[in-house]
């Protein structure tokens, strides 16, 4: 079963296995689930490098497949926003990152990305979908946070991205 039938992708990075699978799914007409904050993060990343024609083309492609309905953006509802606010109060800053400092980005960008991760987790959980992400540590913390806030409810399932070439 394709990953898209069972999970919300937390991001699509060119060259990554999720991007590769999303591209194949888009070409075949399969819907790909993204949380609205993921759409925002992708648009931000592409727009900030839009002086490069490759990023302009990628943003145009991304916009076209959103418009065509190939990518399904799950909305950030008031219920998801409420849960995200509660999670953010519980975990206001991102956990320590083990990657080298130069590859993590500046502190304000890491905090914005953390808020987006919180919103993605809340959106996926309320939709009853697992999150497929390379950022296992952050989303595990958020899954545990949801379980602490809502004991007795199902946990947010976190799936690793597929291995390159594996569908």
Indicate the percent of residues in helices: 40-55%
* Outline: globular
Order of helices and strands: EHEHHEHHEHE
Q: How many β-strand runs? A: 5
The first-level CATH class is given as Alpha Beta
CATH fold title: Rossmann fold
For the biggest sheet, the summary is:
3 strands, parallel
Task: Report the end-to-end length measured between terminal Cα atoms.
Answer: 8 Å
- Summed over residues and divided by their number, the pLDDT gives a mean of 83
User: What is the count of distinct domains?
Assistant: 1
Unreliable stretches, pLDDT < 50, 5 or more residues? 1-6
The CATH architecture assignment turns out to be 3-Layer(aba) Sandwich
The radius of gyration computed from the alpha-carbon positions, rounded to a whole number of angstroms, is 16 Å
> Oligomeric state of the chains?
single chain
Strand order of the largest sheet: 1-4-5
Structural notes for this entry:
The chain is built from six helices and five strands; from the N terminus they run E-H-E-H-H-E-H-H-E-H-E. Helix 6 (136-149) links the parallel strand 4 (131-132) and strand 5 (158-159). By secondary structure, the chain is mainly α. Strands 1-4-5 form a three-stranded parallel sheet. It is globular, with a radius of gyration of 16 Å. It has one domain: Rossmann fold, CATH 3.40.50.1010. Helix 4 (78-90) crosses helix 5. The protein has helices at residues 17-28, 36-47, 53-67, 78-90, 107-127, 136-149; strands at 8-9, 32-35, 71-74, 131-132, 158-159. Residues 1-6 have low confidence and may be disordered. 31% of the residues are buried.
């Amino acid at each position: 079963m394709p990953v898209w039938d069972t999970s919300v992708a937390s991001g699509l990075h060119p060259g990554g296995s999720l991007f590769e699978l999303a591209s194949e799914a888009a070409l075949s007409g399969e819907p790909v689930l993204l949380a609205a904050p993921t759409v925002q993060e992708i648009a931000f990343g592409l727009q900030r490098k839009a002086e490069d024609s490759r990023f302009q083309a990628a943003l145009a492609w991304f916009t076209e497949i959103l418009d065509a309905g190939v990518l399904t953006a799950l909305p950030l509802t008031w219920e998801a926003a409420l849960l995200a606010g509660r999670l953010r109060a519980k975990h206001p800053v991102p956990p320590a990152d083990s990657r080298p400092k130069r590859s993590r980005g500046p502190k304000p960008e890491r905090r914005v990305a953390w808020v987006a991760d919180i919103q993605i987790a809340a959106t996926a959980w309320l939709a009853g979908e697992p999150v497929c992400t390379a950022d296992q540590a952050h989303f595990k913390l958020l899954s545990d946070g949801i379980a602490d806030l809502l004991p007795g409810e199902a946990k947010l399932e976190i799936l690793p991205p597929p291995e390159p070439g594996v569908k």
